[in-house]
Specification:
The structure is a single chain. The chain is an alpha/beta fold and 511 residues long. It has three domains: 230 residues, FAD/NAD(P)-binding domain; 123 residues, FAD/NAD(P)-binding domain (3-Layer(bba) Sandwich); 132 residues, no CATH class. 23% of the residues lie in helices and 25% in strands. It contains twelve helices and 24 strands. The strands form five sheets. Strands 1, 2, 3, 4, 5, 6 and 18 form a seven-stranded mixed beta sheet that branches. Strands 8-14-9-10-11-12-13 form a seven-stranded mixed beta sheet. α9 packs across α12. The model has no long low-confidence stretch (mean pLDDT 95).
Length: 511
């Protein structure tokens, strides 16, 4: 048994766990404290999931090289969707790939270099088996290499492919086992699932198969219409266009009732959603299941009876702590439950890396590495707010979810760091200001390229724009500022409005 008692044990050496560890290490270094953590990785290397997924190798996360500002700037970070966040910013994805959509191996190499630079304690080939709490409140983490004792536990194990319970599903090829594209040449292929995994599969065999159909109960949704990056990205959307242009493709909204193995293929019985319940049996030479991903946390259900959000993610608070188990936290894609299918991005590196930063600061407070995240603001508050709105990647990439939290007390403004909107709403304090960038209700418009704009009426801004919330007497007031084509909020137009809003807080207390 490993008899050391760790402050934090992180389970999973993917980008969520590694980001949490990096930020925690940086905070320890600032305080000249030696970190006391361990990262448990089931495979032989950190970032292992990116050696397997996406199956066809190409990421759909932007790697924009030029923004008009330095690659190390906060502004450029808004458009770099793959790098993990460090203070020095000398290890960025752009150093490993010059492609807008990089190959997945670039992430693996980047993470390996980060682990080496920070000397992160990744315990490889250490499979997590189960967990219990000791009488003195420690977590006892059981692994294939013995037991680890820790005060706080962070689960960052990522997601695993889902397999639906359908008669005959055992006969089909799983997404992760898809064969080389030439195997599907001149065949009729059914792909179960219309998300990015399913459309990625279709894209790979688009010029090999003859007929390609994608099937699921829900209609396909395109990310450029919903602003949710988990919906179909444009790079994967050719199959949708082929369907509408009748190019031997189809997107079926249906329930798959049965998959029967027959000679040369499969008879698939479907019940259509939009056809008065019509049932039809279709023949395909091949069937591929690309039915999405879910959290793999059965051991926590057995050990602690944790609850679920959306039947897919662990139930968590605004600080990413389990709602059932004190001291149990989640990182990476496991944190997507609070903003699932919204305009925020916690299911993806460019979103959950900010969740991990927030979590690391919270853990640093809990373990005594830092006393507080509070830092006094020494410039005019309206200037500080404007700079955040113009430069912060945290606000930009986690719209409406992650914000900068400010407090006014005894005539002084203080930053309390980045927090989730959930934590802000849960806080039992007054004279708080919460800064976010947010979208309006885009779902009220059918055509995403002809959404009207109402100059002079910020409450009707639909595209990303600043929102400033004030909490007084536990009441929250929200103030919208007008959207701008390039989201560049000028001093001339925005400073006066910001000043009016923050003065509402000033007026509550003597200066």
């Amino acid at each position: 048994m490993n008899k050391s008692i760790y402050d934090v044990v992180i389970i999973g050496g993917g980008p969520g766990g590694v980001q949490t560890a990096i930020t925690y290490y940086e905070l320890c270094k600032e305080q000249n404290i030696k970190p006391n953590i361990a990262i448990l990785e089931a495979s032989g290397k950190a970032g292992h999931s990116f050696t397997k997924f996406p199956v066809h190798g190409k990421l759909i996360s932007n790697n924009k090289l030029y923004t008009g500002k330095a690659p190390e700037s906060r502004f450029s970070e808004r458009f770099d969707w793959n790098s993990l966040i460090t203070k020095e910013k000398d290890i960025l994805l752009r150093n490993y790939s010059r492609e807008f959509y990089p190959e997945r191996d670039a992430v693996v190499r980047m993470i390996s270099d980060l682990v080496e630079k920070y000397q992160l304690p990744v315990h490889t080939n250490t499979r997590w088996i189960g967990t219990k709490k000791t009488e003195d409140g420690l977590f006892e983490v059981n692994t294939s290499k013995g037991e680890y004792l820790t005060r706080y536990m962070v689960v960052a194990t990522g997601l695993e492919p889902m397999t639906p319970d359908i008669p005959g599903i055992k006969h089909v090829t799983k997404y992760e086992d898809m064969k080389h594209k030439e195997y599907y040449r001149d065949k009729r292929v059914l792909i179960m699932g219309k998300g990015n995994s399913g459309t990625e599969c279709a894209q790979d065999i688009l010029n090999e198969a003859n007929v390609i159909m994608l099937a699921s109960p829900s209609s396909a949704k395109l990310a450029f219409k919903t602003h949710y990056v988990g919906n179909i990205r444009a790079v994967n959307s050719i199959i949708a266009e082929n369907y509408q242009l009748k190019h031997q493709s189809a997107l079926l909204d249906c329930h798959i009732r049965e998959i029967e193995k027959v000679e040369n293929g499969y008879n698939v019985t479907v019940e259509y959603i939009h056809a008065n319940g019509e049932v039809e049996t279709l023949f395909f030479n091949e069937v591929i299941a690309a039915t999405g991903f879910k959290s793999s946390l059965q051991s926590l259900v057995e050990d602690f009876d944790i609850k679920w959000l959306h039947n897919k993610f662990p139930s968590i608070s605004g600080t990413f702590e389990s709602t059932e188990v004190e001291g149990l936290y989640f990182a990476g894609a496991q944190t997507h439950g609070l903003d699932y299918r919204t305009t925020s991005t916690s299911g993806f590196i460019h979103g959950f890396r900010y969740n991990s930063k927030i979590l690391a600061h919270h853990l640093a407070e809990e373990t005594g590495v830092i006393i507080s995240r509070a830092k006094e603001i020494n410039i005019p508050i309206e200037d500080y707010v404007l700079e955040e709105l113009n430069e912060s990647p945290d606000l930009w990439l986690q719209p409406g979810y992650v914000g900068r939290l400010l407090k006014f007390k005894d005539g002084t403004w203080t930053s309390l760091g980045y927090r989730t909107k959930n934590e802000f709403e849960e806080m039992d304090e007054d004279s708080l200001v919460f800064l976010t960038l947010e979208y309006g209700d885009i779902h009220q418009f059918q055509e995403s390229f002809s959404i009207p704009r109402v100059p002079g009426d910020p409450e009707k801004s639909v595209h990303i724009h600043p929102v400033i919330r004030i909490k007084e007497n536990q009441d929250i007031m929200a103030f919208n500022l007008e959207e701008h084509l390039e989201s560049r909020f000028s001093e001339e137009d925005y400073l006066p409005e910001i000043k009016k809003i923050v003065m509402k807080v000033n007026a509550k207390q003597p200066v």
